[in-house]
Write a structure and sequence with these properties.
306 residues, alpha+beta, Thiol Ester Dehydrase, Chain A, twelve-stranded antiparallel sheet, 12 strands, globular
Length: 306
Amino acid sequence: MTDQPHAARAAAAAEPPTDPTQALLALLDLSSAEGAQTDEEIFVGSSARQPGRRVFGGQVLAQSLVAAMRTVEPSRDVHSMHGYFLRAGDSDQPITFGVQRLRDGRSFSARRTHAYQNGVPILSMIASFQTPDDGIVHQDTMPDGVPDPETLPTTADLLGTLDHPVARAWAFDRPFDIRHVDAPLYLTNEGSREPRNAVWMRSLGPLPDDPNLHRAALAYASDYTLLESILRPHGLSWIQPGMSVASLDHAMWWHRPVRVDEWLLYVQTSPSASGARGLATGHIYNRAGDLVASVAQEGMIRIPPA
């Protein structure tokens, strides 16, 4: 007998939504694996197809977070996650997510999520959740003098006419509108050689009024351009011949409520690069100047000898 629910999901995976916003919502809508459980609570998600078949890191981060959220009391919001990318994922295969309930205290809950393909983990993440509480308040100030996003070109403006699968995927398939404040690094590295980068970003379409969905979507988008702050001072662009780049880990802290279907300014800096690794940090502000999240990531960056 055919497993109808499984067959329906397989058909959906074979024909992903063409609208990028609907594709994002589909990626974050994990199944419960027909009730299968081990010592972990099991969920299954699809992958967005990529030109090189490698799963986008932000996708698996967001999906791992959604899986953890499914096991936490709705009154507790995620405030931090720390993840390690262990293996490259295959975007042609589904991903299984196993969640362990590490702790449920009076105010905080902790969850560990492993993302699996072919029986081995491709990502290991721990996330912490908190019941909302009052306390002291301060934040870094949003930079002054940043151009409005409406005045900046879209990725489609910059890459949409190029006849290359990666360029077209970046221009039309991403569910987020990314607009560079500094000269973009897609094809060339022009302008400042400071280890800084900034982009405006928002989802291409409106998202449902689910705060957890917006937090997970922000994790998704936080992986797009962060390593550019490392590339910029060395004159490197994404098409540097022979360059190999991979995210090694990713940490994120949510400070305040956020909507990703409204413009967010993502300010990125790199304090250090050495040993074929670079560290990048980021602050994400809403348009009112509220610091809504902070991010840190170390990436492997190898370039051929001169």
